[in-house]
UniProtKB/TrEMBL annotation:
Membrane-spanning intervals of the chain: none
Key words of the record: Methyltransferase, Nucleus, S-adenosyl-L-methionine, Transferase
Protein name per the record: N-lysine methyltransferase SETD6
Listed GO biological process terms: methylation
GO MF, one example: methyltransferase activity
Chain segments carrying region Disordered: 39-59
Rubisco LSMT substrate-binding domain location: 4-121
Top-level taxon of the source organism: Eukaryota
């Protein structure tokens, strides 16, 4: 469901791997009975047209059903925990010119990437509350 990399790609305005995320949330939020029925009815292929017409914009994410929102919210929290450090500490480092300039070029680039990723994840948390 999640492809080879096992991750979803989120942008500022929408989920870039929306088909994978939609299917994953749908399946993970099903009861065992619903899953068996869905699988028996070859539901995997029936939903492709429906999913092509829907986008997981930020607005759509905020309207997910409660179980899906909770699952996604908890997943985002786990992802943020894996980063270590918080968003504010990295923002402070970016704003502290002296400390920032002591970092190597590679560390500066990594800081920018990490900070951007964390900002997107925090934005997603706000949408899911």
């Amino acid at each position: 469901m999640v492809g080879e990399e096992g991750a979803f790609v989120l942008g500022w305005d929408e989920v870039l791997t929306e088909e994978e995320l939609s299917m994953t949330l749908k399946v993970l939020c099903m009861s065992e009975e619903e899953f068996k029925e869905y699988k028996e009815q070859d539901g995997w292929e029936d939903d492709s047209e429906e999913e092509e017409n829907s986008t997981l914009s930020n607005e759509a994410l905020s309207r997910l059903k409660t179980p899906c929102k909770k699952l996604l919210y908890d997943s985002v929290l786990l992802t943020l925990e894996s980063y270590g450090g918080d968003l504010k500490a990295e923002q402070d480092l970016l704003n502290n010119k002296e400390a920032y300039e002591k970092l190597s070029r590679r560390e500066q680039q990594a800081l920018h990437v990490r900070y951007g990723q964390k900002r997107i994840l925090h934005q997603l948390l706000e949408l899911l509350q």
